[in-house]
Specification:
This protein has 345 residues and is an alpha+beta fold. The chain is built from ten helices and twelve strands. It is elongated. 27% of the residues are buried.
Amino acid sequence: MDDVSLIERGFEEFPATIALLDRHGDIVYTNRAWRTFADANDYVGDPDSTGVNYLDVCDAAREVDEIAGVVADGIRAVLRGDRDLFTAEYPCHSPTVYRWFALRVVQVDTPRHGNFALVVHLDITDRRLAELQVNEKNEHLAALVGALASELRTNLTTAIEAAERLASLDGDAAVALSESLSRIESLVEWGIDAAEQPSTLDLAPVGFREHVAQAWAVASLDGANDASYRVVGDGTLLADTHLLGLFLVALFTNCFERNAPSGPSSDVVVGTTADGFYVDDDGPHPSSEERAATTASPNQLLGVDYDSLHLSTARRIADLHGWQLDVADSELGGARFEVRGVVWK
């Protein structure tokens, strides 16, 4: 096997799409990946593309696609020898698939035939999706800051009211003040950590029953003292301690509010499953807004908009942990908010 056929064989087997352009911009060679991509995307013309002027195609698209003009100018600079390398990244979505590519253009100088430009298109879809997921998590945490601020205001109000009662009362008011201020302190500490490291979670083994009790106490501060709850099952799961507390508070508060029209009393059951846990209530069946809040929109690439504030918070926290949050009818006659994908220790 001679050197030329060996090089061509290497290009043929290379997974990225490759085209070799002469000094005029005409395509003189494409590899198998190029031809396969053209066939798969209903390219009009010969999938081989030999003889097509790459620069003319880019120039023709300048007015509707800014990156096309940038690519044409970059390739010309490489062919002239003004630069050794040109790079660009661009989206190339189909009606059914989101895709991104990285373009790399380098000069190939041959003693007999002059300069060529080697154009390589690398599929970077997985990387771009990962970047979008990180960005979405950052947006989720930014939204959680708003939820934290809301909870802080609620706890501050409770603390202030309890402090005022201390002027004439003693005992229970002092306990309520202490608990509320402790909760505020922990939320502030978590908020500072989240602001400093917005894309990471501090996962640790967390006692399930203990955190359910703490979250119920916090959620009940807003006047749901007539509600009752019981826990079925126990265990230790991996979670961010503060976020898990906020998650449970959000679900409990949602249960209180959705039961409010029929009266303040409600029965809530919190239980564990093989890969998660659930919160059942005896209120009305799930509303369409509640069901939508746990279902991603098919019209969006990543993320989803929510109509319910508390379920919005819960869904975002579930997403950050890699959990799945679903809503269905509960055995108590109301709604079941079930979490899957939990790692139990």
